[in-house]
């Protein structure tokens, strides 16, 4: 296929776990510098979609392109090497590192396993380079955590650990950033800061796919909303089209 011009293409992806069809020929296309929100009821396949894109799961069929590179079936490190970063519902932060070190370690790694190994492999004085510290400080400033830079990362409350994890993904300068429920557990102020950061990233050209339960946040942030139900895409469009779609209201909001 010729140049797609898209940052991310998911083309007819299917995945079954045993007899359970988690994704059933689901597709999405995201432009460079856009925010796509994945919504749908519990069990509709949202997390599986993120796991497919970042290489944690191998699809049974279908294609995934990052730019013009096919990545389906590639190992997570290879996919990360194509510029894909993701966050997790439960931030996984190693013991004994400061907030600043944790964020700066995002410069070296774009996958979950290597956060711990990168930080531990390096002698302490080599853990972070000056340039990486500057990047990490900027990211911490945007998420409003600068004053906590020297605190132990794991000691932060969950909401702040989520912001930390987003800041950490940001310093990896991903082309495609996958955000999994990053707003849950955040207070209103933190949600605002997070939304600001996500918009800045989008405006800098990053392509963002987010799984998010906060419908107001989705409506405020997304350029495109993709609605999943039972592993299929049942609706797709801008917030103005999705918010009044009767099928979405019944599937997603249960009304
Ligand atoms: P959502 O994120 O929309 O809540 P998921 O993608 O987590 O949905 O799950 C979709 C379906 O796939 C569910 O039925 C879930 O139980 C199943 N599933 C997801 N991951 C696994 C797994 N690793 N092993 C078995 N079943 C899984």
UniProtKB/TrEMBL annotation:
Q: Where in the cell is it found?
A: Cell membrane
Domain named ABC transporter: residues: 8-255
Report the coiled-coil segments: none
Give the highest taxon in the source lineage.
Bacteria
Q: What is this protein called?
A: Branched-chain amino acid transport ATP-binding protein LivG
Its taxonomic placement starts with:
Bacteria, Bacillati, Actinomycetota, Actinomycetes, Mycobacteriales
């Amino acid at each position: 296929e010729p140049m797609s011009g898209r940052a991310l293409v998911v083309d007819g992806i299917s995945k079954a776990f045993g007899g359970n069809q988690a994704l059933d020929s689901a597709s999405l296309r995201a432009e460079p510098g856009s925010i796509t929100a994945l919504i749908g009821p519990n069990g509709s396949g949202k997390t599986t979609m993120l796991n497919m894109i970042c290489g944690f799961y191998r699809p049974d069929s279908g294609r995934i392109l990052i730019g013009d590179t096919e990545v389906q079936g590639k190992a997570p490190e290879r996919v990360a090497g194509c510029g894909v970063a993701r966050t997790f519902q439960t931030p996984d932060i190693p013991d004994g590192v400061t907030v600043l070190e944790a964020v700066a370690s995002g410069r070296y790694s774009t996958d979950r396993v290597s956060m711990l190994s990168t930080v531990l492999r390096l002698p302490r004085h080599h853990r972070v380079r000056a340039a990486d510290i500057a990047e990490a400080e900027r990211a911490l400033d945007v998420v409003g955590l600068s004053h906590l830079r020297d605190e132990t990362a794991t000691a932060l409350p969950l909401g702040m650990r989520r912001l930390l994890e987003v800041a950490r993904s940001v310093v990896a300068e991903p082309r495609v950033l996958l955000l999994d429920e990053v707003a849950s557990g955040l207070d209103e102020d933190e949600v605002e800061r997070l939304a600001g950061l996500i918009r800045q990233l989008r405006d800098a050209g990053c392509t963002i796919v987010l799984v998010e339960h906060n419908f107001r946040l989705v409506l405020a942030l997304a350029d495109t909303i993709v609605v999943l139900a039972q592993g299929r895409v049942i609706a797709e469009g801008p917030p103005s089209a999705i918010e009044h779609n009767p099928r979405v209201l019944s599937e997603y909001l249960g009304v």
